[in-house]
What does this fold into?
Amino acid sequence: MQNMTIADSILKFMTITTDCDLDHGSCNCTVNNTWSDAVCQEHSCCNQQNCTFNPPNATAMCVPVNRVFINGSLTVNASYSLEYFDWENIQYQNHRTNYTQQLESCFSSLEWFDSLNVTGFSQGSVIVNFVMNIMGPVDVTALENIVTGAEVTLKGTFNIVTTGLIKSYKNQSQEKIPYGSSVSITCQPPEALGKCNWTFQQNGKQKVDITNGTEATVVPGSINSTVFITSASEVWKGTFICDYNSKNSTSITHRGILLLNVALIPQITIISDPPCPSCKGAVLPVHVTVLCIISNSTENYAITWNSTISYKQEGTKIQNNQISYEATANIFCDKRSENIYVTCEFKNSLNQIQNATINIPIIYDNSPVCKQDGDWKEVIVNFTATMLCGIDTVGVQTRKCSQSNGETAWETAIVRCVNTDLQSLLHDAQNLQRGQGIVEMNANDIFTRLRQSTEKPTFSTFANINASVAVMGTMTNASSIQKSKWDSSIFPQLVKGSSNLLNESLKDYWHYNGIIPVNGNKSTMKMSFSVRRPRNHKMYCVYLNNNTSQWSDTNCIWGGANNPGFCDCAHNSAFTILMAVVPINITYASDLTYIGLGFSISSLTLCLIIECLVWNTVVKSDISHFRHTVLVNIMLCLLIAHCCLLVVSFTSTTKQWCLVLTVMQHFCFLAMFFWTLCMSMGLLHQLIFVFVNLRKKVYLGLSFSLGYVCPLIIVTVTIISYDNGAADLYYDPKLCWLMYSAPLQGSIHAFVIPVGIIVIVNMFTMVVVISRILKPTVSEGKTHDEKEVARSIIKTVVFLTPALGITWALGLFVLVIDFTSTPFAQIVNYGFILFNSFQGFFIFLTGCLGEKRVRDALLNRFKQQKNAQYKSESSTRITSATKKK
It folds into this structure.
């Protein structure tokens, strides 16, 4: 280590790593140590315990098994110039030395610190790249503290990746694992480090995230994290990487790495040339070439053939990164064999075997055959010939020779040739389904490539269409497994690609199920889609107009909220159903709410002031005391609730304040309704028990218990039930109000259900009051004045509705009716907003100004103040006149 002296160092540990006999050159590593990379490369002693050096080598060294390698970078705010680029420049060397010294002074205090080397500089301000060797375990907390302090000292930011601190291992002991076997890879940190992010890298390609899929399952533990692979194959042959973010520093990542080596098994395509050798007039042996074709790989296969044929040991590279192994079979026509069988067998390094066999019929003079047709060579009847696809395609094409009524003929060729770009796309989609990659991050690329593939002139084949449909189905399955939501930006690519698949020129490749009813000259198509439509989101039945490249809903009707997956179109165009990204908004709903809340808050405040001024004058009996006590508490609760609602509407709140405001609204609105229930019960008591008066202590105790204790219990139980008031469970952080998930699901029902019951009881009370008005008393005689009765009923409804909260019954309809159900939804919502946001104003009109005794008391108070002021002024004038005399 440079620039360090003995005086600067503190010796804490000393351990022997290597035991050598220098006279004989024999060395071995002590426990928990292994040979260094240099010894492994130069002397091939990586796995042996003992190693002999000839001549004796004093520099032979073992290193700790638990050593840690740190790859880091420091970004400093400086201008990047050529002096950081040219490593031969003296200024470059000075910068390198300077940063090495500064970094060593920071990190050398780490236990087991060995060396630090600045490897170069990168652009982006100035990025100092360095590597560090730690010859023992690293203390996570100490590293965090050093990095935090170094960022302050060096005035920069670090990006640190440790390797070796996280131990990684698999559940199989052998270096190579069998093809198709299950395997698990586990990462074990020295302590709990939080969430682990798994990635996979193959052949130096870009890393992909490992998620749950058909072949991969990520199982996090309290400390360890494990990936289970159900079937090891060439897809999973590569490097598994687990990254743990440091708990107290975002600059540090602890990484574990494991290379999974899989013994591969090939997929074999076997063909012969010619497919059916001819012995017509042949004297000499007929030669047949047999090809076994596999994908190119790093696996070293042992290849064997039938013992009776000659073959080439080395394969030949052909198109599409494939290798062809060739053998030659000799057919002796005089033996009159009907056919021969040729088998090629591939054995991998773990002795797993894959083979393929081909049956080669032989044509004789009397054999019925199909003559050569283009590239299709002569074959015997009932034989299916196989031929490789052309350039830029993958797969095979087959064609059968058949016989009917004594005549032989070629059937239509079955072409399974898929464009290489489309096959690669399908492979990537299948990897997403297996668990390699995140659908949300890759969907746009997949569907863009799909659209591009469907626009190529060579696309119009059944195999390409089939592969494209397979891509869509695979992406759907992958999305379902990962429970992912596609971003709206992918839909233009998806729909354009889908529209290309349904192009008129490709109709012969599709098989339709269902009936398109035709009425006269007008054809219609009715189709139901399986859709999950969030509440209040409108759906659109549209088709892509190729002339304008725009969506069009001409002659298409959506089934509405009651049948959201139904489309009825008056034409047979390729159409789909789209959903609006945002829900429908009620026009001017917010403006009307804010205006109503302003009126309500002002009116309630004024009404409470009036109650304070006239209380002693108005409250003369137990009945009036009960009525005004209930009314004051209703106004107080409603005032606080409306103030909270206004605060939420006009300010951006944190989660903590949002929770507080939600609880306040929940409690105050519930308390307001329970006080209306008290008023309702009081009215019923007066009507039913006419000659029984409630004592003040009784009704005050019952009212305050019902008005405040019951709401408090409901709110407390609701908060506890929804994870102690967690966001997105108890309350919506965007609205600062209770959550609605679905009918009878969500915390909103802890408000709706009790309010609904109270509103029903209050409506019943109003009905009882109205029926009492309609029923004449003995003193009034048998008949009523109809106008007086009507006037009394209207007065009762107008005066009781705001105070009893009857208009909140509209809220139940708002909760049930979808906004797409026009115009009924708009009528109900406007009614709910107008009646309930102005509720305080209506209470002011009916509860305060509407009561004659309140008006009289208020006028008398003003008159008394005016008379007192007049008397004061008169007394002042008389006193002044007396003094003048």
The longest helix spans residues 655-688. Residues 511-523 have pLDDT under 50 and may be disordered. The CA atoms of residues 179 and 233 lie 6 Å apart. DSSP finds 17 helices and 44 strands in the chain.
